[in-house]
Amino acid sequence: MNPKQILCVEDEAAIILPLRYALEREGWTVHWANTGTQALAMSALQTFDFIILDVGLPDINGFEVCKQLRKKDHTPLLFLTARDDEIDRVVGLEIGADDYCSKPFSAREIVARIKAIWRRMESHAQPVTTSIEIPETDVTLQSATWSCNPQSLQIQYHGQMLQLTRYEYRLLFLLIQHPEQVFSRQQLMDHIWEHPEHSLERTVDTHIKSLRQKLKQITPDDPIRTHRGFGYSLMKLD
């Protein structure tokens, strides 16, 4: 079996050297780029099994590099960031990252995260034995609490327009369509995310947290219910 090919995009040698050592101990081949431009050039010439991408590169922002990479393929990707900022994490996941890790980190943690993502991808490749049917609609939904317009991709909550990202909109609209129905994280990802096989279930949790923050800016009530160990549902409101 050919060794896994890992692309590490990081400009600090003090970070990449111990990380590279840990990755190579797993039998993986490590390729190092210290700029976003170099990473894009390397990915155009070779297919990688995993990409570790620093957000703060000296030439191109890591988010922009990720956007460019996603135009070509959906190689699993993990962001490294010096900031533990919720907005950064949401943006990173929104544009196609599979995971993120804040500095400082241990090389063993990165190895464990890579293996977890690969295991999840392999499980998605297996036949699915159970599924749910979730009918879609382009009909405007209207109630005293919610107003949803699929044509304009807008949702109002208690008469106030919500500023939602693409996946926040899809997630909330699905829950509004099916009040009181409990969805597992996997069901939500399969229905909403364009490439669920390259994402982590924590992506759902991050988007739910962001949605709750936006809803609470309008009213302190939280209509989203958490079902521990399973997933989420939306309370049935008038």
Major sheet: 5 strands, parallel
Total DSSP E strands: 12
The CATH homologous superfamily of the largest domain is named: Response regulator
Q: What's the average pLDDT?
A: 83
Could you please say which CATH topology of the largest domain applies here? Rossmann fold
* Spatial shape: elongated
Helix run count: 8
What level of helicity do the residues show? 25-40%
* CATH level-1 class of the largest domain: Alpha Beta
The neighbouring-strand order within the major sheet is: 2-1-3-4-5
Q: In what range is the share of β-strand residues?
A: 15-25%
Distance between the termini: 58 Å
The computed structural class is alpha/beta
The unreliable regions are 124-139
Second-tier CATH architecture of the largest domain: 3-Layer(aba) Sandwich
The H/E string reads EHEHEHEHEHEEEEHEHHEE
The whole-angstrom Rg is: 20 Å
How many discrete structural domains? 2
GO cellular component, one term: cytosol
Domain Response regulatory: 5-118
InterPro entries: CheY-like_superfamily, OmpR/PhoB-type_DNA-bd, Sig_transdc_resp-reg_C-effctor, Sig_transdc_resp-reg_receiver, WalR-like, WH-like_DNA-bd_sf
Pfam family, one: Response_reg
Task: Give descriptors for this structure.
single chain; 238 residues; Arc Repressor Mutant, subunit A; 2 domains; five-stranded parallel beta sheet; four-stranded antiparallel beta sheet; 12 strands; elongated
